[in-house]
Structure of BMP family ABC transporter substrate-binding protein:
Amino acid sequence: MMITRRGCLASAVAAAALIAAGSALAEGAPFKMGLLVPGSVSEEGWNRIGFNALKGVEAELGAEVSYVELQQNPASFEKAFHDFASQGYNVILGHGFEFQDAALAVAPEYPDTVFLISSSYISEGNVIGLNTDTSQPFYLMGVIAAKTGKKAGLVGGMEIPPIKEAFEGFTNGVRSVAPDFPISEVYIGNFTDATATKEASLSLISQGADFVLPNASGATVGGFQAAAESGENVKTFSIFSDFTSVAPKNILGLYIADYARGVIRIVGDIKNGKKPTTNVEFGLKDADVMQFTYNDQAANPVTENVRKYVDEVKAKIAAGEIKTRQK
């Protein structure tokens, strides 16, 4: 059983001490974590990343875990949070910015549960945002696009902050190399329709884009399919998971977020009674979380000179010398 405020009325000092230890478990009680994902965990990409984090917590922290796959329905988000919290789950991860409002609505009813929200900057009570600053690796992709291409096309799922921030990073990376480099940006309005991502990407390619970058969660694969069908001169970058098999000649490299490592670190702290007091942000400085590599089997692989330049930029971003987006 968890320590609650009800048992902390002896003194203000005692109350503060017990609340600080509020996430510590009573002897013998299981530590439990739940996960909400906006789609299927069977798909490579964003949802799989959340699932891998959950399984990492199970394996490394000995937690009891469970997850639910949801569509874009805010009412179902609140119900899922209620269901987990009412069953005594200690931590619930809403894997995406879209879960933030539902968490804020439900969290006050369950003060002993920590609600973590991926791709969020929230820090209100027991609702804490975990953000992987994708503007940083996307900035590097922008540098590569400007040095290897003629025009870029960006295809997003929904126009929400995490997608816009990633594309802002890409654009800033491009502008750092070639201020007049043309960039087109479109959104398909969802995170599930891979056909829509493919059609949008093909449209941008027909308009002259030779570097396309899809960022649409479960629908992302459509952009890589479009690149593969458009010839080896169309370049792209695999994001979040390894899609190289879809477009092996087009994908110049991979940005993989080992989000599990960061989540395990934070959840481990919570299990030990140390809840984050601010939102948590992972970046290129966190080498265990962010991995940026190249595909030497691409038809037009990134040259050594460009790689050397990108490494220099990467080091400056990690050191805080280059800001990849407005905060």
